[in-house]
Specification:
FMN; binds flavin mononucleotide; alpha/beta; Alpha-hydroxy-acid oxidizing protein; Aldolase_TIM
């Protein structure tokens, strides 16, 4: 077993173990992938202030997200088809998150169902909703999430239609994979993955199949979103969904100050500054670049979280020091899951935690809540989305 020290190490193992179709699904952005790349390269533009001769004993990374205590300012983001990256993927990731003390968010487009994840965990998780045209389906899935004890609804706003990701079209992405000749040749090299899949019944969209009617091709994400996702989603509908849910609400996919103000008016507990990991509007700025203007717009009455591009504990520190209350990770935990199942997700969380903790110390901080702009060296113009840097 190689010595794993970084999220990149996990990505490389994941690439070897997962079928190409699912690796490509995870590791791509839309169109030219400019936003996908800038999500990570913009983090690298921010530097850290090195401080010395400061007491760095008794450090803590503990904080809160929407009033919930968390071991570090990180939650697992909703990721569709997680159960195709590794058999029973959502259950394994949820268990790892629970043991680590960070929130897990279950996607609408998960393989393991809400009820299944609830049956295998002991603490409430969060449920992410894509708004569908079928209001009855939406009402029922929200009720199922409530019945399962989900403690927050994460409403994703940046995917009313699917951004084009070339590789998914070329690979004929589906869950379970359709057995074409190229797919079968590739699957023949993924023995561990195949054995895992043979040993589980969870191979379809667990929240959808058997719960939604009139679905043309329930295996195809592309066909599904085209048929079912609500192109007419508006702030008025979001307000109705807020009332229908009646619990804590997180609005995800905000990447503009004007939208952040609208989200604040809705009365959300938190917003997630996000461009869906560069998978939707290619050409949009990275979320870390948009964060300052959004924070200026909403002040400190709404909790602001951030995702897209986090691959290390240093990235988490930079986001928090820039003013985000917390972060979400998508690919970073999927790499771990695809590499080594539950142990891999735990490994990803351990890596991020250790990097965050040590970096905090070397910046002269002992408490994650004390991080701020004073810890960073930010290039001139970074906060101004119109500046060229
Ligand atoms: C493979 C994959 C599937 C995703 N599926 C969903 C989803 O079902 N619902 C959702 O709200 N966001 C989804 N996202 C977006 C993530 O929640 C998150 O915003 C994104 O991964 C953050 O960027 P990062 O991967 O660079 O951390 C997905 C992201 C990836 C990589």
């Amino acid at each position: 077993m190689p010595v794993i020290t970084t999220i990149e190490d996990l990505r490389q193992i994941y690439q070897r173990r997962a079928p190409r179709m699912f690796y490509d699904y995870c590791e791509s952005g839309s169109w030219t992938e400019q936003t996908f790349r800038q999500n990570t390269s913009d983090f690298a533009k921010i530097h850290l202030r090195q401080r010395v001769a400061v007491d760095m004993s008794n450090r803590t990374t503990e904080t809160e997200m929407i009033g919930q205590k968390v071991a570090m300012p990180v939650a697992l983001a909703p990721v569709g088809l997680t159960g195709m990256q590794h058999a029973d993927g959502e259950i394994l990731a949820a268990k790892a998150a629970e043991k680590f003390g960070v929130p897990f968010t279950l996607s609408t487009m998960s393989i393991c169902s809400i009820e299944d994840v609830a049956a295998h965990t002991t603490k409430p998780f969060w449920f992410q909703l894509y708004v569908m045209k079928d209001e009855d389906f939406v009402r029922r899935i929200l009720q199922r999430a409530k019945d399962a004890g989900c403690s927050a609804l994460v409403l994703t706003l940046d995917l009313q239609l699917l951004g084009q990701r070339h590789k998914d079209l070329k690979n004929g992405l589906s869950a379970p994979p359709k057995l074409t000749i190229p797919t079968m040749i590739n699957l023949a090299t993924k023995v561990q993955w195949g054995l895992g899949m043979l040993g589980t019944k969870r191979r379809f969209f667990g929240n959808i199949v058997g719960h939604a009617t009139g679905v043309g091709d329930p295996a195809s994400l592309g066909a599904w979103t085209a048929e079912q996702f609500d192109l007419q989603l508006t702030w008025a509908k979001i307000e109705k969904l807020r009332d229908m849910w009646g619990g804590k609400l997180i609005l995800k996919g905000i990447n503009d100050a004007e939208d952040a103000i609208m989200a604040q008016k809705i009365g959300a507990e938190a917003i997630v500054v996000s461009n869906h990991g560069g998978r939707q509007l290619d050409g949009a700025h990275s979320s870390i670049r948009m964060l300052p203007s959004i924070l200026d717009a909403v002040g400190d009455t709404t909790e602001v979280h951030l995702d897209s591009g986090i691959r290390s504990g240093q990235d988490v520190l930079k986001a928090v020091a820039m003013g985000a209350k917390s972060t979400f990770i998508g690919r970073s935990f999927v790499y771990g899951l695809g590499a080594m199942g539950e142990a891999g997700v735990t490994k990803a969380l351990e890596i991020i935690h250790a990097e965050l903790d040590k970096t905090m110390a070397l910046c002269g901080e002992r408490d994650v809540k004390a991080l701020g702009r004073h810890n960073l060296i930010v290039p001139q113009g970074f906060e101004d989305p119109t500046a060229v840097i």
